[in-house]
Design a protein that fits this description.
Elements: E1 3-4, E2 9-16, H1 22-28, H2 32-44, E3 50-54, E4 58-65, H3 68-77, H4 83-89, E5 90-94, H5 96-106, H6 118-133, H7 138-157, H8 167-178, E6 187-190, H9 194-206, E7 212-215, H10 219-228, E8 232-235, H11 240-245, E9 249-252, E10 272-276, H12 285-288, E11 293-296, H13 298-301, H14 306-313, H15 316-364, H16 370-393, H17 399-410, E12 415-416
Parallel strand pairs: 1-12, 6-7, 6-9, 7-8, 9-10, 10-11
Antiparallel strand pairs: 2-4, 2-5, 3-4
């Protein structure tokens, strides 16, 4: 009987900007702490390959399972989303579809802003976290390596990422397009994570505004940043309400798991533009209801000009050709990994038959040419195994069933790795 070391399917399940709005995506967002807890639970259940990706545009789990609901249940457990909500807005990819999805995502083809490569760094971090938790394997190592190679080539060999279009860049561009006197407006950036730093740098690069202030909960980080960016003023967190009252544009990039700007923080009646770059939303719904407040979230900020989009769309076929090359290389490795042990076992079984027959005829036939017999029968063995390799590579072939037949016919102790057709 064939020993199956792996009989699960590869799934990618999750929600993204394609079907879920910012509010729903916020519900399914998984904090770093909960990502670790999810991976630890998966490991305790014996799941041999799984990683979690949670960004402002998507939350996904990629892993091997008997059924996708195993992954869906874990996502709902460690987020604030329900199974019912997931069913309405979800994507579920299996085996080759899941692999294709990872390639498209990692090369910027599946980004909300076409060609946005921020996802590449986020994918690396997600995989690193899974590796630290001990939930990665050789399969994922090889797959992610091919995805990153394809991503690098698409970035270097196409214009898919022409122009800067990150959410932080879009926030500054929104301000420029919608405020006539944006250079003289008081701007307050709240939060100094990666997004906050990019926002400050984009403000410095694309505007001449000299009235930009920065507030961060950890003031030491803000002080260090302001020393290197002297055009920005450091403001104290305890003065948040007062600073908001004096500002015209509030850019929120705190990246918290709940609202950091609430109704009680708005103590002014003058016009206030709030750009919320965080996911889940860090500005409460009550703030948007205030007459003097215009609140813009990440979905609105992710829109780019038709002209830039048109240039990038022309590059899609080139990017897809690059993906195809690396995907084929991965599939070749996968095929080799799946049935090479079985082919080797078959070859060894045939060699045992060969040696037995040569020994038998050596006794029976006078002046038997053992060397010539070995050359001829070895060629037969090579041709037989080559035919089996061709058969197993055929997309219509059920690898498990074929190897079972091989085992029964040749009496070989054949086994496969990742025997399920991926």
């Amino acid at each position: 009987m064939v020993e199956e070391k792996h009989n699960k399917n590869l799934y990618n399940i999750g929600v993204s900007y394609k079907k879920a709005d910012a509010t729903i995506r916020g519900k399914f967002s998984v904090s770093k702490e909960n990502q670790v807890a999810l991976l630890e639970e998966a490991k305790s259940k014996g799941m041999e390959g799984i990683f979690v990706l949670s960004t402002c545009n998507r939350t996904e789990i990629t892993g091997f399972a008997d059924h996708p609901f195993q992954l869906i249940g874990m996502l709902c457990k460690y987020s604030n989303g329900s199974v019912e909500e997931f069913a309405q807005v979800s994507n579920v990819y299996k085996n080759k579809e899941a692999i294709n999805h990872l390639f498209r995502m990692g090369t910027g083809l599946d980004s909300q802003i076409l060609g946005d490569y921020e996802i590449v760094g986020q994918l690396r971090q997600a995989f690193k976290l899974a590796k630290e938790a001990g939930t990665t394997n050789a399969y994922f190592e090889r797959l992610l390596n091919h995805v990153m190679q394809a991503s690098k080539r698409v970035k270097n060999e196409t214009r898919l990422s022409s122009g800067t279009t990150s959410v932080s860049y879009a926030a500054v561009q929104y301000m420029i397009k919608n405020l006539e006197d944006y250079n003289s407006k008081n701007v307050l950036v709240f939060g100094l994570g990666k997004m906050g730093k990019h926002t400050c740098k984009n403000l410095a690069e694309y505007t001449q505004n000299k009235t930009v202030s920065l507030i961060n909960r950890t003031e030491e980080k803000a002080i260090a940043f302001v020393k290197e960016n002297t055009s920005i003023r450091n403001a104290k967190y305890e003065n948040l309400n007062k600073e908001i009252a004096n500002t015209d544009v509030l850019i929120v990039s705190t990246g918290a798991s709940e609202a950091t700007i609430k109704k009680e923080h708005i103590l002014t009646n003058k016009e206030l533009l709030i750009l919320d770059l965080s996911m889940p939303a860090n500005v409460s719904k009550e703030v948007a209801e205030l007459d003097n407040v215009t609140l813009v979230n990440v979905d609105e900020l992710s829109k780019i000009t038709d002209e830039t989009l048109a240039i990038r769309q022309q590059e899609i076929p080139v990017a897809e050709a690059i993906i195809e090359t690396h995907n084929e290389e991965f599939q070749e490795w996968l095929n080799h990994r799946r049935f090479t042990p079985a082919i080797n076992a078959l070859k060894q079984s045939l060699k045992t038959i060969q040696q037995g027959e040569i020994a038998f005829h050596k006794k029976k036939i006078k002046d038997f040419d053992e060397t010539q017999a070995e050359v001829i029968t070895s060629r037969f063995i090579q041709k037989i195994t080559t035919q089996f390799v061709k058969h197993l590579k055929d997309e219509e072939t059920s690898v498990n069933k074929s190897i079972e037949v091989m085992a029964k016919v040749f009496g070989a102790n054949l086994e496969t790795i990742h025997a399920e057709d991926n």
